[in-house]
Amino acid sequence: MSKIKETSTNFANKQALANECLEVYSTNIIGGQWSLPICYALLSGKLRFGEIKKVLPNITERMLTLQLKKLEKNNVLTRKIYAEVPPRVEYELTTIGYELKPIIKELENWAIKHKKIV
Amino acid sequence: MSKIKETSTNFANKQALANECLEVYSTNIIGGQWSLPICYALLSGKLRFGEIKKVLPNITERMLTLQLKKLEKNNVLTRKIYAEVPPRVEYELTTIGYELKPIIKELENWAIKHKKIV
DNA sequence: TACGGTACTAACAAAAATGTAAGTAATGTC
DNA sequence: GACATTACTTACATTTTTGTTAGTACCGTA
């Protein structure tokens, strides 16, 4: 989410591909390095910022923030802020967010099969 | 496939994630910008280098080469060279390559659902 | 008044992915 | 001998993604 250059070839290619290939439309949304792990963690219910961090100990706060923002912008999850001090923010998958489950399932299945042959 | 730095934090993170999250194991393999479109094209049967290029008019020869190499290295497809001039090279999905189909299917399903809500 | 806790933000740096432009080999055809 | 064809390779440039480090605001508690 460092701002992207909307005049670049890469940007144009991504757009064009997403229009023609539905798979790419999806991977453009859930394709970041940490997106799927975050969604996976949230599949079992809403979590606070710090709780997600605990589940993914290697993620930096910056990356977590960026990916959460992107996912929120794409309606994959919602952000709920409580007016407390210290702050409390809860992240929860939307309906369509929960529907990532079959994708994750198939990715897992494939990984298992693939590991067998390597 | 510009050579990656095996001492980088990013490299370590990818490894660790792939070990803990099967989804990431898979996306590390099929995650490039052009990987899924290439595999999609090959789902209907083997194709020559130039034929893939026709299906994906915006891909550069460099990217196509790189992604094909990566996919081959990961046993997703095979490369068959014919000793002819001009050269002829055919790419074909392996068994596990063909098994990407359900993943692609679910990604497509999700894209359709997602488009409805946006 | 200093400190802890939470969820961030900002400036900068490094790495990774992608794109651009040009060139190569081999051989058959004109 | 020049040219076309095919599947690449190479050197370099740009863009995108990810990582590093150091902050910030708020308020209750010691």
UniProtKB/TrEMBL annotation, chains A, B:
<keyword id="KW-0805">Transcription regulation</keyword>
<dbReference type="InterPro" id="IPR002577">
    <property type="entry name" value="HTH_HxlR"/>
</dbReference>
<protein>
    <submittedName>
        <fullName>DNA-binding transcriptional regulator, HxlR family</fullName>
    </submittedName>
</protein>
<dbReference type="InterPro" id="IPR036390">
    <property type="entry name" value="WH_DNA-bd_sf"/>
</dbReference>
<keyword id="KW-0804">Transcription</keyword>
<feature type="domain" description="HTH hxlR-type">
    <location>
        <begin position="21"/>
        <end position="118"/>
    </location>
</feature>
<dbReference type="Pfam" id="PF01638">
    <property type="entry name" value="HxlR"/>
</dbReference>
<dbReference type="InterPro" id="IPR036388">
    <property type="entry name" value="WH-like_DNA-bd_sf"/>
</dbReference>
<dbReference type="GO" id="GO:0003677">
    <property type="term" value="F:DNA binding"/>
</dbReference>
<keyword id="KW-0238">DNA-binding</keyword>
